[in-house]
């Protein structure tokens, strides 16, 4: 809260949400007097019939959890704009836009004083009055907490049946119902039906909290093996792997698109911490280091020590040699790795192609040509034509434009 020189409230913000820049911008708006409690209050005093101003004042009181005063102002909005013509408000966290009057009506229906038991009747009345409002889902969600944890089993069952019928493909809704079934220790048949549907809905993007709810159902049913399959070691290892690949994708995206390079490197390093033995991540993070002008760190992570450690693995040596050839750096060791890969798998055509690339980057055209000719000799017909074109370019390079 900020207080002016006259001792009156200027504005307030409750809690802190990252990022810091956004919070700082909020504080700056207070300093500048933009949409503060003081400025909105002054506008209200000047024109108490302006529904938009009254709505803003109601929200300010709501931000401070003053249910009594916010409800008082929201009720004024209902009187001033019963048809919802005065304007709309967009709720940032949900990206829902609706008329002031609908937000006001839902706020009135859900506002409660501390310690007061919430009455579901006003929320049901809101749904009946505004059945097509984009806020209907929020109204049901609000009731979901009551019926999920406070209502009796007999009250909860019909509510969740109605809720799920309204939003049959929403995993959050079905998960709330299954959580209640777990709490009541039944009915398990319905629980299994919900669990199967939840797994179908989230199969391409599993949500750990949902899988935990499903696993809890099977634990209650005495089927620990099924619980482990849903929320066990394999599931979590998959989550770690998925997160690791997402971190690498994020890091590369922002490294290539003018983002915070230090943050991109940090995200890549986090992926590597999650999967320290993953050779793909090693190469990716080394690439991030190079793009951030940290060649020494790249070599420490994915340099000669790595190639020596994997000196009997042709595939790892081939990938390693190709990486450094593309960078045009660490070429002496890349050549050692490429030669060793060929020695280990002398009939594998693409290894010779990588060897050719390394020689080419080292300005040794004769050896580069020889290696690529060997690749053509060994390559299947489908690859020969491409390699022949590459060989022609190697022998007769296009003059560089000045």
What structural category characterises the helix and strand content?
mainly alpha
**Helix count?**
22
Q: At the first level of CATH, what is the class of the domain at 1-128?
A: Mainly Alpha
> Which strands sit side by side, in order, in the main sheet?
1-2
Distance between the termini: 63 Å
Task: Give the helix level as a range of percent.
Answer: over 70%
Largest sheet: 2 strands, antiparallel
CATH topology of the domain at 1-128: Serine Threonine Protein Phosphatase 5, Tetratricopeptide repeat
Helix/strand order: EEHHHHEEHHHHHHHHHHHHHHHHHH
Number of strands: 4
Q: Describe it for me?
A:
The protein has about 400 residues and is mainly alpha-helical. It has a domain at about 1-130: Alpha Horseshoe (Serine Threonine Protein Phosphatase 5, Tetratricopeptide repeat). It has helices at about 20-30, 35-45, 50-65, 65-80, 100-110, 120-130, 135-150, 155-165, 170-185, 190-200, 210-220, 225-230, 235-255, 260-275, 280-290, 295-300, 305-310, 315-325, 330-345, 350-360, 365-380, 380-395; strands at about 1-5, 10, 90, 95-100. The strands form two sheets. Strands 1-2 form a two-stranded antiparallel sheet. A two-stranded antiparallel ribbon has the order 3-4. A hairpin with a 4-residue loop joins strand 3 and strand 4 (about 95-100). Helix 11 (about 210-220) runs antiparallel to helix 12 and helix 14 packs antiparallel against helix 15. It starts with a strand and ends in a 7-residue tail after the last helix.
């Amino acid at each position: 809260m900020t207080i002016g020189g006259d001792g009156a409230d200027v504005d307030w913000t409750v809690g802190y949400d990252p990022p810091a820049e956004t919070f700082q911008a909020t504080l700056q708006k207070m300093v500048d007097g933009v949409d503060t409690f003081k400025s909105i209050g002054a506008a209200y005093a000047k024109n108490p019939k302006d529904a938009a101003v009254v709505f803003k004042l109601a929200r300010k009181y709501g931000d401070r959890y003053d249910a009594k005063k916010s409800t008082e102002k929201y009720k004024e909005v209902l009187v001033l704009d019963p048809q919802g013509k005065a304007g709309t408000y967009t709720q940032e966290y949900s990206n829902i836009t609706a008329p002031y009057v609908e937000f006001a009506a839902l706020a009135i229906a859900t506002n409660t004083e501390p310690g007061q038991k919430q009455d579901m009747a006003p929320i049901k009345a809101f749904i009946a009055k505004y059945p097509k409002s984009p806020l209907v889902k929020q109204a049901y969600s609000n009731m979901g907490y009551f019926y999920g944890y406070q209502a009796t089993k007999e009250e909860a069952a019909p509510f969740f049946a109605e809720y799920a019928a309204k939003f049959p493909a929403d995993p959050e809704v079905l998960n709330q119902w299954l959580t209640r079934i777990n709490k009541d220790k039944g009915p398990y048949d319905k629980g299994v039906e919900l669990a199967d549907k939840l797994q179908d809905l989230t199969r391409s993007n599993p949500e750990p909290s949902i899988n935990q709810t499903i696993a809890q159902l099977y634990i209650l049913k005495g089927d620990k093996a099924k619980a482990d399959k849903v929320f066990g070691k394999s599931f979590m290892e998959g989550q770690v792997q998925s997160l690791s690949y997402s971190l690498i994708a994020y890091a590369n995206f922002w490294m290539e698109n003018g983002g915070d390079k230090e943050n991109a490197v940090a995200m890549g390093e986090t992926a590597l911490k999650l999967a320290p033995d993953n050779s793909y991540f090693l190469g990716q993070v080394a690439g991030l280091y190079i793009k951030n002008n940290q060649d020494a760190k790249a070599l420490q992570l994915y340099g000669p020590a790595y190639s020596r450690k994997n000196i009997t693995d042709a595939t790892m040596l081939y990938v390693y040699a190709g990486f450094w050839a593309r960078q045009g750096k660490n070429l002496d060791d890349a050549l050692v790795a490429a030669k060793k890969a060929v020695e280990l798998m002398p009939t594998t055509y693409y290894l010779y192609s990588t060897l050719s690339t390394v020689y080419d980057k080292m300005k040794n055209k004769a050896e580069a040509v020889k290696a690529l000719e060997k690749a053509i000799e060994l390559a299947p017909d489908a690859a020969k034509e491409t390699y022949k074109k590459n060989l022609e370019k190697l022998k007769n390079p296009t003059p560089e434009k000045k």
